[in-house]
Amino acid sequence: MALITEPGKSDFIVANVSNSHNDAVAFQVKFAKDLTVAQLKSKLEILTGGCAGTMKVEVYKGETCLSTLDNNDALLGYYANSDGLRLHVIDSFASFSFDNAPVEKFELTKDQYEQRTDSVRNYLKQNRLGKYNEEEMQQAEEKRRLQAEEIQKRAELCVIGARCEVSVPGNPTRRGTIRYNGQLEGKNGHFIGIEYDEPLGKNNGSVAGKAYFSCAPNYGGFVSPLSVTVGDFPPEDFNLDDEL
């Protein structure tokens, strides 16, 4: 499905690229919005030395993580639609290991790096960007606090057995029954386990081999409490026998 660009909007974004190997290294790159996430990762593989098959890419605005590019078939423009964002690549970066290379390595101590005027860190300080913008950091912290409160509030409404409607960006609205409320092993955050009325899920109530509830394959899913609305949502009737 083609990405529809609003009138006057560019078909490209200019984003900063950083990586978990070295947070002092960042650069600016122009990307087409109609790149799939898989195509983007292939480009980032060349730029960062990570592996497209294993890397995790997060979208940041300042120090706030907006989303994770976890759908390889989705278009970049649905996650990042404006300039000034940062794409952060997380991977093992095995290709960055130069310990056995027969070349002299150029290394700086922390104090030497702090004294440089041409470093990324100095640029961020001079322009009060990211973590060096106290006001922005306070706003980001307040936003995280409010979001955490909202997640807790919404999670308390998600009673096991309650009917609900699930709305996740990029997916159709789905209805189902709440089967789990809590943490997932190896995952950060709070999750609500849903048994959907239709096979529109991703699992059978298990994640990474651990069962949290049981349902038919592709009828189960786990989402943020922010994506769940609890209420009187009976199963939708898709019986079309009476249709002419």
From TrEMBL:
Domain CAP-Gly: 182-224
Membrane-spanning ranges: none
Pfam family, one: Ubiquitin_2
Gene Ontology cellular component list: cell cortex; cytosol; microtubule plus-end; nucleus
Keyword Nucleotide-binding included in the entry's annotation: no
Claim: Cell division is one of the keywords in the record: no
Annotated InterPro entries: CAP-Gly_dom_sf, CAP-Gly_domain, TBCB_Ubl, Ubiquitin-like_dom, Ubiquitin-like_domsf
Cited PROSITE patterns: CAP_GLY_1 (PS00845), CAP_GLY_2 (PS50245)
Subcellular location: Cytoplasm
Database matches in Gene3D superfamilies: CAP Gly-rich-like domain (2.30.30.190), Phosphatidylinositol 3-kinase Catalytic Subunit, Chain A, domain 1 (3.10.20.90)
SMART domains: CAP_GLY (SM01052)
Keyword list, A-Z: Chaperone, Cytoplasm
Listed PANTHER family: DYNACTIN 1-RELATED MICROTUBULE-BINDING, TUBULIN-FOLDING COFACTOR B
Protein name: Tubulin-folding cofactor B
Species of origin: Drosophila kikkawai
Phylogenetic lineage: Eukaryota, Metazoa, Ecdysozoa, Arthropoda, Hexapoda
Name of the gene encoding the protein in the UniProt record: Tbcb
